[in-house]
Specification:
about 375 residues, Rossmann fold, seven-stranded parallel sheet, 13 strands, globular, binds nicotinamide-adenine-dinucleotide, binds (2R)-2,3-dihydroxypropanoic acid, NAD, transmembrane helix, glyoxylate reductase (NADPH) activity
Length: about 375
């Protein structure tokens, strides 16, 4: 018999049973589900990462849909269990879905949702914050102050890198990478390497700078990743994690980078070979990193925590109140839309209509990554 698992229940008589494996910020997502006749069950078990067995126990014998987290292993076992319980919808409360085996979901006819757009700027802002923190050694300086070591101004004290006029490289210039590039254009970058970016933003800003007697910002699409690695002073990683990006940054790519470069990772930990990174940080004390994600989360590879040239934060890039509430809303609406037989929203890059608190959300699932494979209809709204 499955072990009992602690839950909190809203609208116990609701027709559809929707399970959330975690409590999520805000109440709008719960209210939207309740208004549409859902019984909402939220797991309150005091355990950060739920196991497959825990989630099977939560799914039980009858479950219409599950909202899950990026820390969970959504593969064959869980999709089979959800399908046996009559469920046809799952949504990650995250844009990245490398924890989900989409082929297994397809096999069981389960729609897989994610939460794009609402976290784009929030995540890019953290990447920009880490860029500044790493460049100006903010965390080291803070620790020094708190340790009572400051005994007066010195010419060499915590000297870091000036970013103005430097070359910024973005690897994975999708929604978040492009937003980061836009943020970094203003002021810092003399040169920007990006794969896709609205060049008119740069051109218009260039005109503004020229009118003020300053050097315009320029950009180019790099011919290869090697070119970005060789020429950039600051590189921010924003690709998805899949087999093409696993250890994209490894011993060789680190060796290609400038000795005093800064590397930022707000994508997924395994995009960087963390063992090679620790070694590189040891050998190159002027090389700096800002990391929001780690190869074996929640752990860091041995030695990383001791490196003064690393700024490390616990996967908080999307952690603003508005964003996290929006992610919860999108995840709930992905599941609800499927339960209600709504079509899929046509453009997952334009999800703002789902965040208007003063109007009901569109009758659509905001973002279903396997909509095509499952032949789900697309909304004309
Ligand atoms: N740290 C966090 O809290 C946090 C928050 C949000 C997103 N993320 C991560 O960021 C990722 C990107 O999110 P997004 O909304 O910008 O997605 P997106 O799909 O808009 O962008 C991903 C980009 O990666 C590029 N890409 C794919 N394969 C590549 C490769 N081999 N080399 C270089 N680029 C490649 C794609 O062309 C695309 O431009 C997510 O998948 C997620 O893993 C992390
Ligand atoms: O993929 C995501 O959405 C993040 O890692 C959490 O916001």
């Amino acid at each position: 018999m499955a072990k009992p698992i602690a839950i909190e229940v809203y609208n116990p008589n609701g027709k559809y049973r929707v399970v959330s494996t975690k409590s999520m910020p805000g109440t709008r997502w719960i209210n939207l589900l309740i208004e549409q006749d859902c019984r909402v069950e939220i797991c309150t078990q005091k355990k950060t990462i739920l196991s497959v067995e825990d989630i099977i126990a939560l799914i039980g014998d009858k479950c219409d849909g599950v909202i899950g987290q990026l820390t969970e292993d959504w593969g064959e076992t869980l999709f089979a269990a959800l399908s046996r319980a009559g469920g046809k919808a799952f949504s990650n409360m995250a844009v990245g879905y490398n924890n989900v085996d989409v082929n297994a979901a397809n096999k069981h006819g389960v729609a897989v949702g994610n939460t794009p757009g609402v976290l784009t700027e929030t995540t890019a802002e953290l990447a920009a914050s880490l860029s500044l923190a790493a460049a100006r050694r903010i965390v080291e300086s803070d620790q020094f102050m708190r340790a009572g070591l400051y005994d007066g101004w010195l010419p060499h004290l915590f000297v870091g890198n000036l970013l103005k006029g430097q070359t910024v490289g973005v690897i994975g210039a999708g929604r978040i990478g492009s937003a980061y590039a836009r943020m970094m254009i203003i002021y810092f970058s003399q040169f920007l390497f990006v794969v896709i970016i609205a060049c008119f933003v740069i051109a218009a800003y260039g005109e503004f700078l020229k009118a003020n007697g300053e050097q315009p910002v320029t950009w180019k699409r790099a011919a290869s990743m090697d070119e970005v690695l060789r020429e950039a002073d600051l590189i921010s990683l924003h690709p998805i994690l899949d087999k093409t990006t696993y250890h994209l940054i490894n011993k060789e790519s680190l060796a290609t980078m400038k000795k005093e470069a800064i590397l930022i990772n707000c994508s997924r930990g395994p995009v960087v070979d963390e063992v090679a990174l620790v070694e590189h940080l040891k050998q190159n004390p002027m090389f700096r990193v800002g990391l929001d994600v780690f190869e074996d989360e929640p752990y860091m590879k041995p030695g990383l925590a001791d490196m003064k040239n690393a700024v490390v934060v616990p996967h908080i890039a999307s952690a603003s109140k508005w964003t996290r509430e929006g992610m919860a809303t999108l995840a709930a609406l992905n599941v609800l839309g499927n339960i209600k037989g709504y079509p899929v929203w046509g453009d997952p890059n334009r999800v703002e209509p789902f965040f208007n608190e003063n109007a009901p959300p569109p009758a659509a699932s905001p973002s279903i990554v396997n909509a095509k494979a499952l032949g789900l209809p697309v909304s004309k709204l």
